[in-house]
Amino acid sequence: MTKNADTITVAGVQLNTGLFINNEWVAGRGEPLQSIDPATEEVIATIQTATPEDVDDAVAAARNAFENTWGTNVSGQERGQLLFALADQVEQNIERLAALEVVDAGKPCAWARVDMEDTVACLRYYAGWADKIHGTTIEIDDKEKHAVARKEPIGVVAQIVPWNYPILMLAWKVGPALAAGCSIVFKAAEQTPLSTLLFAELVRAAGYPAGAFNLVNGVGAVTGDALARHMDVDKIAFTGSTATGRRIAVAAAQSNLKAVTLELGGKSPNIVFEDADVGEAAKWAAFGVFENMGQSCSAGSRVLVQAGVYDAFVAEFKRQAEAFAVGDVNDPKTFQGPQVSKLQFDKIMGYIAEGKKGARLVTGGERHGSKGYFVQPTVFADVEMGTKIADEEIFGPVASVIKFGSEEEGIKIANDTSYGLAAAVHSQNYARVQRVTRRLKAGTVWVNQYTLLSHAIPFGGYKQSGWGRELGAAGLEPYLTTKSVHHYYGGPFEWPINLSKL
Ligand code: NAI
Ligand code: MG
User: Fold this and answer.
1) What whole-number distance in Å separates Cα of residue 120 and Cα of residue 123?
2) Catalytic center at which residues (predicted)?
3) Nearest ligand, CA of residue 340?
4) Which of 117, 197, 202, 399 is the most exposed place for a label (fewest CB within 10 A)?
5) Global pTM value
C-alpha cells in the first residue's frame, strides 16, 4: 500500500483523495471515480476507491481498534468528550464542508450551510448520550440471584449513505455509533464523496484512536457489496433506495447475519382536509416536496386534497411552486439547485413525460436553463392512483396532487403504497387530527407542518421504507447489544435438582 495518496484542491479546500484507514491516508486499489458538479456538468475531482481487499484492511483496522483501543476500552465520558471535540471541528469547518457540498451535490449555498449546522447539532446531541448509556438490573430472587443486562457497543459497523445529504446522513449514523463505542467503516455515495474526505481529517484532528473511523469510497456494487458481505462486520446501516436496501439485507443474510438497519424510500402523502388553513397547508406542501430539489426520502410527493378546497389549494400551491428561486447555487437566495446527476435528471424527466400523458400539468414540466441538471418545480393535478407518478418515488421536484372525498377515502389513498416513511395531516379539527394520525402507516407524521426533523426525534419507516429507527434515543439502540449477566450467590448446587424450585 502506498502512503500519501494524491491530494487535490476543490472549492479552495485541499483534500486527500485516498482511503482513510487507521487515521492515515492510503491508496485505494480500485478504479478511480470521477465526481461531477451537477450545476456545470464538469468533472471536479477524481478520487480513489476501495477494492474488496481494501475493505478487508479497513475492517481489520476497525476490528483492532474496537478490541484494543476503542469500544469498551474507552469510558462513556471520554467518548462524549471526543464526540464534542468532533462537533467543534465540524463547526470550525462549516464553510469548507458546505462549499464542497455546493459543488459536489449541487446544493444551494444557504441550504448546504443549514445541513452543516444540523450536523453539528446532531453530533452534539449524541455526544451528550455517550455517558448516559445504562443497562438494567433485574432482580430474580433477592436471596440467590440477580442479573445485569449490560449495554455494549455492537462492534464493527459498516455505514453506507446516499448523495442527497452527504454529511448530514453521515452525522445520523456516525454520531450514535461513536457515542456507543462502535468502530466504523464508512462509505459515501459515489456522486458526493468530497465532503466526507474532509470529515475524515476532522476525525483525526478531534483525537480519535486510529481505526475508530475509517473511510472507503467506491461504487455500490464493489465497495458497498464487500461491506455488506463482510464476515467481520457486526452491523450495517444503510440509507438509500429500497432496491439496494433489499440487496444489502440479502447480502447480510448470505454472509454472517450481521444486524441490518435500513432507511429507504418513500411516496409520502401530505393530506389537506377541508378544515385546514389552505394557505399554510400549501406553503408546507410546497416546501415538503420541493426542498432539496425533491431529493428527500421523506418528500411529500403525493399531495392529497379534499374536494371542497381542491381548486383553491391547487391555485395556491401553483403560486408557491412558481415563487421558488431556481438556479445559481452560489446565490444565498436560491432555493433550488440542480439534481445530483444526469442519471437522476433523465429519470425525473422520464416521469414528467409520463405525467403529461394522463395528468394535468399545472406548472413546470421542463428543464430549467440549458446547462446543469436543473428541473423546473413541477406540479401535476388530477393525478390518479395506479399511475406511475402517483405510485413510484420520483426523487425530484415533482408533486402529484390527488383529489379525495371523505376522510375515510383520504386515509385509504394515503396508505395505498408499499412505502411508509412519512405523512402529514393538515386540519384545524383536533379530533380529526387524532383519528387520522393514528391510522396512517408511516414512521413520521407531521400535523400542520412538513419536512422539519430534529435529531432528538426518532425517524424511520413502516413497510418497505425500512428497518429500525435513526435519531433520538431510538437511534442509539441499533449500535448497542445487550449482554445479560446472571449473578448467582445461593447455596451449593444439589443433585438431584429439586424441580419444584426451578
Ligand atoms: P442507491 O440506493 O443505489 O445508492 C445509495 C448508496 O448505496 C450509495 O452509497 C451506493 O454506492 C450504495 N450502493 C449501491 N448499490 C449497493 C450494493 N449493492 N451494496 C451496497 N451498497 C450499495 O441509490 P441511487 O442509485 O443513487 O439512486 C436511485 C434511487 O434511489 C433514487 O432515484 C431515489 O429514488 C432512491 N434514493 C433514496 C434515497 C433516500 O434517502 N431514501 C437516497 C438516494 C436515492
Ligand atoms: Mg458530485
Assistant:
1) 5
2) 263
3) 2
4) 117
5) 0.97
